[in-house]
Amino acid sequence: MAKVVERRKLNFWEELYLPAIAEGLGRTFKQMFKPEITLQYPEQRPVIEDDYRGAPGLVKDEEGREKCVSCQLCEYICPPKAIVIVPGEAPEDTAYDYSNIEKAPKEFYIDMLRCIYCGYCEEICPEQAIFMTREYELNAATRQELVHDKPRLYEIGGTRPGLIKKWKHKDDGRGAEDH
Fold it and tell me: Does residue 179 have a pLDDT over 50?
């Protein structure tokens, strides 16, 4: 059963719409004399706060070695399942002992169209290999370009000195943190 709603009859001023027009013009003139808040992007850039969480990126240590050990915790914790890691064998290197590293990422993808920038991946990473960067300009011509692979993630993340180091020198048996 439908309920019938009665409309009230408009009075003379409401039929003319003059009060509504006057109110709209008043708001317009008020806004004309307020300071401008629009940025003319890209000439003007916004101020990025210190706690801003931009695009996630992988980082390397000071010597250019990748820190990720394919533990896949970030893939597991990611709410929208935007991270995909394909584990592989740890690299063979002559200067460093990789005996305490079981695996390294063969492939690492983050789908930026699915990422919600929550920062869980950064918080859960035991090796401090993934960080939320201050990168906010993510644009591409196709959807596939926004699925960042391992080289692109290292380009975004860069190098972070002074973090956890898991390698040992073969010649002296010391860990990299002893230097």
Answer: no
pLDDT in tens, 29-72: 998 888 888 888 889 988 888 888 899 999 988 888 888 889 99
Q: What is the pTM of this model?
A: 0.69
How many domains does the chain fold into? 1
By the 8 A CB rule, do 104 and 88 touch?
yes
- Which among 157, 151, 149, 107 has a CA at the least distance from the CA of 132? 157
**Token digits of residue 48:** 């990025």
User: What gap in Å lies between CA 98 and CA 82, rounded to an integer?
Assistant: 29
Range of the domain at 76: 56-174
- Find out whether the peptide bond into 151 is cis, omega within 30 degrees of 0: no
Rg over CA atoms, the chain? 27
